[in-house]
Design a protein that fits this description.
Elements (H helix, E strand, L loop, with lengths): L2 H22 L3 H21 L3 H25 L10 H4 L6 H22 L18 H11 L1 H26 L3
Length: 177
Amino acid sequence: MSFEQVLFIIVSLILLASALGAVFARRIMHSALLAVAAFTGVGGIYAILGSHFLAVAQVLIYIGAVAIVLLFAVMLSQQREISGSNPVRKQKLWKNWVTWAAFGVGLVMVLYFTVNLATPTASQEIPLIHTEPATSLEGLSELLFREYLVPFELVSLLLLLVVIGAVVIARKENDPQ
């Protein structure tokens, strides 16, 4: 194994541990800090894979902006009880067999399709969209705004719907009506 492979495995394990910690932490502040660690891990993976622009963008946008806003929102919220304030932790997901069954089915499907798509038979040929990786900013923008424009716009629409849903949920909780 090369040094890059070992480094990739280490950063991936740190990323996985911090992402799971962000979901299952007892305190919301710990969840926010572990989310920052997960964002840092994603930036590290981008750097290891040679996409330095994405690594810098990840650090600047997610750690520099999103995570700081998240931390300020947690600190400035008027919760009397910060201890045990993570709503995911209160749901007791480990007792909900439907959740775990859905997770297991999803995991098996992802592993099945990953193995089948990653190991072609002799008669199959892997269709390549691009022969060279987009390492430059021009190549990345070419891919993002020409070939992957529809998924890019769908993700932006999904994020917009998430923001609208968060506003509606927050409004219902604060309105006495």
